[in-house]
Amino acid sequence: TGDGMQRMAQCFADGLEARLAGSGTHIYTALISQRTSAADILKAYHLFLAACPFRKLSNFFSNKTIMNLAEKATRLHIVDFGIMYGFQWPCLIQRLSSRPVGPPKLRITGIDLPRPGFRPAERVEETGRRLANYAATFKVPFEFNAIAQKWDTIRIEDLKIDSDEVLVVNCLYRFRYLLDETVVVESPRNVVLNLIREMNPDVFIQGIVNGAHSAPFFITRFREALF
């Protein structure tokens, strides 16, 4: 019920209490297992875009880069690490539909972490269905490949890459969940970066937050998260 700073202080105080009590994992598991509808998430996303321009600009830069690259392409394949609800792509689909030469065949490989429970790929599959319906509305040939697993376990064969398509790898603000070499020597982050290098995309679009969220020291992580 307080202002922004007071609400944030409350959340971090709860987090510190969970950390001291060792109950953080149980609380997180209970929270993430609760299903929030895509419609509610979209309302929150619209509010976020209205309050803060950074994500909107990131989406614009990413989509503009892809449009320039695929100006005359007949086949476009986007591999999106951390697609979540896929809110970035309807604008691109609409713009592709208005190309003077007609839309390309669009294929999106949506990659996200598995959900807890019996349907680990539920969210990413629902994202694919929504994007397919949107593409059909604008008459853009569309195919969706859903992958819900830890990113460092993905093999290049899982991505079904064709040599005659324009290949884009996109990841906006999701690499921060990958542990780096300060935590484990064979770090998941390096494994994923090596996979992207092996894919040899026409462009790799990466959005990052400058924050040491994966540092091995708790105080450093806390300070960066608070910032």
Secondary structure tally, helices? 8
- CATH topology: the name is Rossmann fold
Share of helical residues: 40-55%
Task: Sketch the topology as an H/E string, one letter per element.
Answer: HHHHEHEHEEHEH
Largest sheet: 5 strands, parallel
State the domain count: 1
Mean pLDDT: 91
Strand arrangement across the biggest beta sheet:
3-2-1-4-5
Poorly predicted regions: none
Task: Provide a descriptive summary of the structure in words.
The protein is an alpha/beta fold and 227 residues long. The protein has one domain (53-226): Vaccinia Virus protein VP39 (Rossmann fold), CATH 3.40.50.150. It has helices at 4-21, 24-32, 38-51, 54-69, 89-97, 122-137, 188-199, 218-226; strands at 75-81, 105-112, 142-148, 166-172, 203-207. Helix 4 (54-69) runs parallel beside helix 5. The two termini are 21 Å apart. Keywords: Transcription, Transcription regulation. Belongs to the GRAS family.
